[in-house]
């Protein structure tokens, strides 16, 4: 495990976290609801539906892209394409103003599709960089550095928003600039990944065209699913608990604005603090995860998520809400790191991109279910965000129940026994 290469891999988490933090979590989501959709009763649902379309596209393509990357040793080449796409369409969000619903939806779908696909590809390098017993630690480094990247993007955006608001600028004037800041930081910070990260995999000769090759590998994986029953169980668990996580990520700023009365600046400061606690959570749990065990680590964090939902639902003033938000940070960093490491631990070494494609598929399915559930509840109840939060919190309870039957050591043995 070469230090420079691990750092270069982790820098991609630093680079792409600005997109999640600024576009999806802190700024553009609330801007979409209040300005682009004009605060209509269906505005929150429209935001979640746009994201659902992008995630559905990833669900349809992730296994094929992962299988293709394995067969042709093309993870790094494909990562370059997806990074360029996400940067370009994120910058394009700067063109979206009041009432530009169609343009806003199209650019969100495209930017998020390329972002999510790249996230799958870069994760598939993890088993190449760390041995099984060190995956939790290396994954934790990546997630913690990612939250630092989110902090940098948020800090730069907050500085500009504060400057613009001091001059009397409205959201339609300063939000576009934050999209350009985010795109530029994504492009610059990802350079070490493309300069120093190596593609270790060797191409696998397979008969037939590109699509046929990819489909054949995916079908083979499904056919032998019984050999990977613990991985399959964890992916199902992940669909449910990530549904709750994705609802929180996608709608945090909307909840803060609609329920707690936060301004854009207030929300940026809140998410800034959450990123600090998330970095601490990812790094801290990454250090103990390999000793505590992947399943126990996840169980602790899911219990924390359940507590967080109850506290945020009950909060009437900013103090309890701030406490809940920072507990979100600790749980977010640790659960994301632990989940990624567990997929790597349970994946056959020769098929990492393919199985991380399935991981991406599970996460993106959850990214459809969680936020759309939240958006649908707010639409049906004409804006009851508290009830929507409580309903989506049930996903954590289901995830915990499924996790209870997982045997990680049995799953690891099945992965190592696979020769292809």
- The level 1 CATH classification is Mainly Alpha
Q: What's the rounded overall pLDDT mean?
A: 86
* Biggest β-sheet description: none
Order of helices and strands: HHHHHHHHHHHHHHHHH
Give the CATH topology.
Growth Hormone, Chain: A
CATH architecture: Up-down Bundle
End-to-end CA span: 23 Å
Give the overall shape, derived from the CA principal axes: globular
Question: Mind telling me the C-alpha Rg?
Answer: 20 Å
Structure description:
With 420 residues, this protein is mainly alpha-helical. The chain has a single domain, classed as Up-down Bundle (Growth Hormone, Chain: A). The chain contains 17 helices and no strands. The longest helix is centred in the middle third of the chain and has 32 residues, at 135-166. It is globular, with a radius of gyration of 20 Å. 58% of the residues are buried.
Kindly summarize this structure in a few lines:
The protein is an all-alpha fold and about 425 residues long. It contains 17 helices and no strands. The chain has one domain (about 5-195, about 210-415): Up-down Bundle (Growth Hormone, Chain: A), CATH 1.20.1250.20.
Secondary structure topology:
Elements: H1 3-26, H2 28-36, H3 43-72, H4 75-92, H5 101-123, H6 126-129, H7 135-166, H8 171-189, H9 191-196, H10 210-223, H11 229-258, H12 264-292, H13 294-314, H14 318-346, H15 352-380, H16 385-403, H17 408-416
Helix pairs in contact: 1-7, 1-8, 1-11, 1-12, 2-3, 3-5, 3-10, 3-15, 4-5, 4-8, 5-15, 7-8, 7-12, 7-14, 11-14, 11-15, 11-16, 12-13, 12-14, 13-14, 13-16, 15-16
């Amino acid at each position: 495990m070469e230090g420079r290469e691990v750092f270069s891999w982790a820098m991609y988490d630093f680079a792409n976290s600005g997109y999640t933090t600024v576009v999806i979590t802190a700024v553009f989501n609330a801007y979409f609801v209040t300005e682009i959709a004009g605060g209509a009763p269906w505005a929150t649902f429209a935001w979640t539906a746009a994201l659902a379309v992008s995630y559905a596209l990833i669900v349809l393509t992730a296994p094929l892209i992962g299988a293709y990357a394995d067969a042709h040793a093309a993870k790094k080449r494909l990562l370059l394409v997806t990074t360029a796409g996400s940067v370009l369409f994120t910058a394009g969000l700067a063109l979206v103003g009041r009432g530009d619903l169609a343009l806003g939806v199209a650019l969100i779908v495209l930017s998020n599709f390329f972002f999510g696909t790249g996230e799958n590809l870069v994760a598939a390098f993890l088993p190449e960089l760390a041995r099984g017993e060190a995956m939790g630690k290396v994954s934790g480094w990546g997630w913690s550095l990612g939250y630092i990247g989110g902090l940098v993007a948020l800090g730069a955006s907050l500085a500009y928003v504060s400057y613009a608001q001091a001059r009397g600028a409205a959201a339609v004037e300063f939000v576009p600039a934050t999209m350009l800041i985010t795109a530029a930081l994504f492009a610059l910070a990802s350079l070490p990944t493309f300069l120093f990260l190596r593609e270790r995999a060797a191409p696998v000769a397979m008969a037939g065209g590109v699509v046929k090759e990819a489909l054949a590998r995916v079908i083979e994986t499904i056919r032998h699913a019984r050999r990977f029953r613990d991985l399959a169980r964890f992916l199902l668990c992940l669909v449910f608990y990530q549904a709750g996580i994705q609802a929180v990520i996608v709608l945090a700023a909307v909840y803060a604005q609609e329920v707690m009365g936060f301004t854009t600046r207030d929300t940026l400061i809140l998410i800034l603090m959450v990123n600090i606690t998330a970095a601490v959570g990812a790094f801290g749990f990454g250090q103990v995860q390999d000793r505590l065990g992947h399943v126990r680590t996840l169980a602790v964090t899911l219990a924390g998520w359940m507590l967080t939902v109850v506290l945020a639902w009950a909060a009437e003033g900013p103090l309890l809400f701030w406490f809940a938000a920072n507990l979100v940070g600790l749980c977010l960093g640790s659960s994301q790191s632990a989940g990624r490491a567990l997929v790597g631990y349970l994946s056959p070494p020769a098929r990492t991109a393919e199985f991380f494609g399935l991981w991406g598929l599970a996460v993106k399915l959850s990214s459809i279910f969680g936020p759309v559930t939240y958006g649908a509840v707010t639409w049906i109840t004409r804006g009851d965000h508290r009830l929507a939060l409580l309903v989506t919190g049930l996903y954590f309870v289901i995830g915990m129940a499924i996790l209870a039957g997982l045997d990680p050591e049995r799953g690891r043995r099945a992965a190592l026994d696979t020769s292809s």
